[in-house]
């Protein structure tokens, strides 16, 4: 659509700024069970113009209301009371979360109107497979999957609102702090139902630098000094975590994980229904989010392929939401990007090519790493490659089913297979921190399971007789790949030739185990 194209061409920073601003003009209302939408909107209009709104299901009906002016929120807050403290005592923190109940339960005359509810989680895999079988080509199947799983406009608004509500707390201590989402919430590869990664930022430095040059004095704030940045991060997160735990309406199960490589606070934000991870500004993680955003915007096949591969991996137990020796979604996404750089002609540019196109404003050196790349999408030439998604999915499985993982690593900077710098089974260079392996956690059995599944999938797609399967109402194309394969393990065994026998046994065991849990997991996430 035209609207999509116009939103697509915005830079990452423009989209972020717009969304954060939108979130500041937004409130969340827990609605009464019998609700007339018109009455609600009429009342809200008395505080100012409502720019957009939607309803969703979350332990009852909730409404997200975006006003045109921030002042409307203050006007509404002036009219809202504090809960009566009969059996509970309350923490008197006035947020942008409200509960509305009807003063006079609806008389017969006012009908409750059926509300349109925006879905906030994806459909179960088995329902997805039924939809996929009705498509006319594998490309359409992949776009159907993308449409079912990708973040909706409403869900993105809710994610930014969750950040904005946390920011209301951090501003109590640090008046010019911001809380912004990063990772899958903003990189165009997020799936409905995924966690919200957010970080606390203190530096909106740009505005400040010019003013400091004037006058005869070097001037700076007196601030508490701590032995290291890490120590400061831990202190700040510890206090913010306590604050959310003690005073944050709807913040539950707050866990402080301060000794991790990247210290964070995990909590469940009940009003929006999200699991949240809050950390302190990590500039490299933001650059990674923006890099993926650029790749996701360049060509519609990129996201369709990533979503299909990730769904496939989840169904076959190759990925898992619990940390472990599995391949992560981030590693898988990197593998898809690398594959698209290796096509002839390439579908997306390498990171080095994006760096060549960088202007002055795009220069970022972070902790000694060069994280520069172009941010203006218009400067990147569109690809000449016209391969269909049908071809690309089969070729992806073919490529990695036969990749020399023992010798080669995956490098998105160069877009080339490079000798492995060390012996991890799977080596994917971190695009920015060049001495880190994104997939260091992956062990040999998991990699071999991935290879076996990729070979099996390539084989299924090659031998498939689509017309016959459609006549027989059997799953075909992508749908056939989203059903666990373990049913015919003999075929699997032949596909495993040339894979180290010591891991075959553990592999087949894990396959049997996985079949039982797989559909549960795929549906549960």
From TrEMBL:
Pfam families the record matches: MTPAP-like_central (PF22600), PAP_assoc (PF03828), RL (PF17797)
Keyword Ribonucleoprotein among record annotations: no
CDD domains: NT_PAP_TUTase
Assigned keywords, A-Z: Magnesium, Metal-binding, Transferase
Residue ranges of every copy of the Poly(A) RNA polymerase mitochondrial-like central palm domain listed in the record: 139-296
Residues of the RL domain: 11-79
InterPro entries for this protein: MTPAP-like_central, NT_sf, PAP_assoc, RL
GO molecular function, one term: poly(A) RNA polymerase activity
Residue span, PAP-associated domain: 391-425
Name of the featured protein: PAPD1 protein
């Amino acid at each position: 659509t035209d609207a999509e194209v116009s939103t697509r061409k915005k830079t990452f920073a423009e989209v972020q700024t717009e969304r954060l601003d939108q979130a500041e003009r937004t409130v969340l209302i827990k609605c009464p069970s019998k609700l007339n939408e018109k009455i609600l909107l009429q009342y809200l209009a008395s505080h100012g113009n409502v720019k957009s709104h939607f309803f969703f299901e979350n332990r009852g009906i909730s409404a997200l209301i975006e006003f045109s002016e921030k002042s409307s929120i203050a006007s509404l807050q002036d009219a809202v009371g504090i809960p009566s403290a009969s059996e509970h005592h309350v923490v008197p923190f006035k947020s942008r979360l409200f509960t509305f109940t009807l003063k006079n339960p609806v008389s017969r005359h006012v009908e409750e109107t059926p509300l349109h509810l925006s879905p906030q989680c994806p459909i179960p895999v088995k329902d997805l497979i039924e939809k996929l079988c009705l498509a006319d080509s594998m490309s359409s199947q992949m776009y159907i999957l993308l449409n079912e799983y990708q973040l909706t406009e409403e869900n993105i608004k809710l994610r930014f609102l969750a950040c904005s509500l946390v920011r209301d707390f951090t501003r109590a201590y640090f008046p010019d702090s911001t809380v912004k989402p990063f990772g899958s919430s903003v990189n165009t590869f997020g799936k409905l139902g995924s966690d919200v990664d957010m970080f606390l930022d203190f530096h909106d430095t740009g505005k400040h630098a010019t003013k400091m040059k004037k006058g005869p004095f070097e001037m700076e704030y007196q601030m508490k000094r701590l032995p290291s940045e890490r120590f400061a991060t831990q202190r700040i997160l510890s206090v913010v975590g306590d604050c959310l735990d003690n005073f944050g309406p709807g913040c539950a199960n707050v866990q402080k994980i301060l000794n991790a490589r990247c210290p964070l606070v995990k909590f469940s934000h009940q009003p929006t229904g999200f699991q949240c991870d809050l950390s302190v500004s990590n500039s490299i993680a933001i650059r990674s989010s923006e890099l993926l955003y650029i790749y996701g915007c360049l060509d519609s096949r990129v996201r369709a392929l990533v979503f299909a591969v990730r769904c496939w991996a989840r169904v076959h137990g190759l990925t898992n939401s619990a940390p472990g020796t599995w391949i992560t979604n981030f590693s898988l996404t990197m593998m898809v990007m690398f594959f698209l750089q290796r096509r002839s002609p390439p579908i997306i540019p390498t990171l080095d090519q994006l760096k060549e196109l960088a202007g002055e404003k795009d220069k970022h050196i972070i902790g000694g790493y060069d994280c520069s790349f172009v941010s203006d999408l218009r400067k990147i030439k569109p690809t000449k490659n016209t391969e269909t998604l049908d071809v690309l999915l089969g070729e992806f499985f073919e490529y990695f089913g036969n990749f020399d993982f023992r010798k080669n690593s995956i490098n998105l900077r160069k877009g080339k297979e490079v000798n492995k710098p060390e012996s991890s089974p799977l080596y994917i260079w971190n695009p920015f921190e060049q001495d880190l392996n994104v997939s260091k956690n992956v062990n040999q059995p998991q990699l071999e399971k991935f290879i076996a599944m990729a070979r099996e999938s390539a084989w299924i797609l090659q031998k498939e007789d689509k017309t016959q399967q459609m006549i027989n109402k059997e799953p075909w194309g992508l749908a056939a790949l989203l059903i666990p394969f373990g049913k015919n393990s003999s075929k699997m065994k032949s596909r495993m030739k040339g894979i180290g026998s010591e891991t075959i046994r553990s592999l087949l065991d894990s396959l049997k185990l996985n079949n039982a849990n797989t559909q549960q997991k795929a549906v549960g996430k």
